[in-house]
Amino acid sequence: GRNIHFGVRELAMGGIANGMLLHGGLRTYVGTFFVFSDYLKPMARLSALMKIPQIFVLTHDSIGVGEDGPTHEPIEQLAMLRSIPNMEVIRPCDRTETEGAWMAALQSKDHPTALILTRQNLAQLPGSDAEKVKLGAYITDDCEGTPDVIVIATGSEVSLAVEAKKALAAKGDSRKIRVVSMPNMEAFEKQSAEYRESVLPNSCRKRVAVEALSDFGWGKYVGLDGKTVSMHSFGASGKAELLFEHFGITAENVVKTIESL
């Protein structure tokens, strides 16, 4: 068949797939739970070092794993993968962005790509754009003129950012809020200074980053005046919706964080 079942052998899986890709004739990808990227990491690093377009499909990407508990809930793994030179890490917010992420991975010639996917179902957002995934970050829900507040989010948390903006408007809050989806930090950093400024203008210092993983790495985008809605501990065992509420990964907490700026 076309699939190889490796069992619980992430390191060997990555090494064998890298070897197949180097040999030529096949385009390979590997898949496992995101938390087990810890075991996969040496081969992911080597694929980046060798400049080969390996694809890593990593699912169950947050506390949304739920009842499996903290041993299976990634926290620091996203920051780890983002720190690898020549590795692009994409965390899409819905089906549309996932299509764009897969196309970006297939089009790569000289770097590996990690696709970070959820376990839970996600809302399909009207502002998501498959073509813009390759830009790394883009405006998914804008305001008129220069924003007063920018909310940056990835993956399953983009919908929370959009919900928070709507909730503030319903309360009569007059602040102009821009929502930015940032599925791929590495690609965003490769864009022109003009494009980066058009998405994240330096004049807007009030920023909130929303991501249900470690906040490590977000400081460069939110700055000294911004805040994060993220994880600051290991997860827990329970239903996903209860865990998101317990750890404050909710639209309500995003609203409170914006109001506190």
What order do the helices and strands come in, and which of them pair?
Elements lengths: L9 H14 L5 E5 L3 H13 L5 E5 L17 H6 L5 E3 L4 H13 L5 E4 L21 E4 L7 E5 L4 H13 L6 E5 L3 H5 L3 H7 L7 E8 L4 H4 L4 E5 L8 H7 L4 H9 L2
Parallel strand pairs: 1-2, 2-4, 3-4, 6-7, 6-8, 8-9
Antiparallel strand pairs: 5-7
Report on this structure:
The chain is an alpha/beta fold. It folds into two domains: 10-116, Rossmann fold (3-Layer(aba) Sandwich); 131-259, Rossmann fold (3-Layer(aba) Sandwich). The chain contains ten helices and nine strands. A five-stranded mixed β-sheet has the order 5-7-6-8-9. Strands 1-2-4-3 form a four-stranded parallel β-sheet, with helices on both faces. Helix 8 links the parallel strand 8 and strand 9. Helix 1 (10-23) packs parallel to helix 2 and helix 5 (158-170) packs across helix 10 (251-259). The longest helix is centred in the N-terminal third of the chain and has 14 residues, at 10-23. The radius of gyration is 18 Å and the shape is globular. The model has no long low-confidence stretch (mean pLDDT 96).
List its traits.
four-stranded parallel sheet; globular; alpha/beta; 261 residues; 9 strands; Rossmann fold; five-stranded mixed sheet
Question: What's the tally of helices?
Answer: 10
Major sheet size, sense and barrel closure: 5 strands, mixed
- The total count of strands amounts to 9
Adjacency order of strands in the biggest sheet: 5-7-6-8-9
CATH T-level topology of the largest domain: Rossmann fold
Distance between the termini: 55 Å
* CATH class placement of the largest domain: Alpha Beta
Q: Name the average pLDDT.
A: 96
Second-tier CATH architecture of the largest domain: 3-Layer(aba) Sandwich
SSE-based structural type? alpha/beta
- The Cα radius of gyration reads 18 Å
Tally the structural domains.
2
* Low-confidence region ranges: none
Q: In percent, how much strand structure appears in the residues?
A: 15-25%
**What is the helix/strand order?**
HEHEHEHEEEHEHHEHEHH
Shape: globular
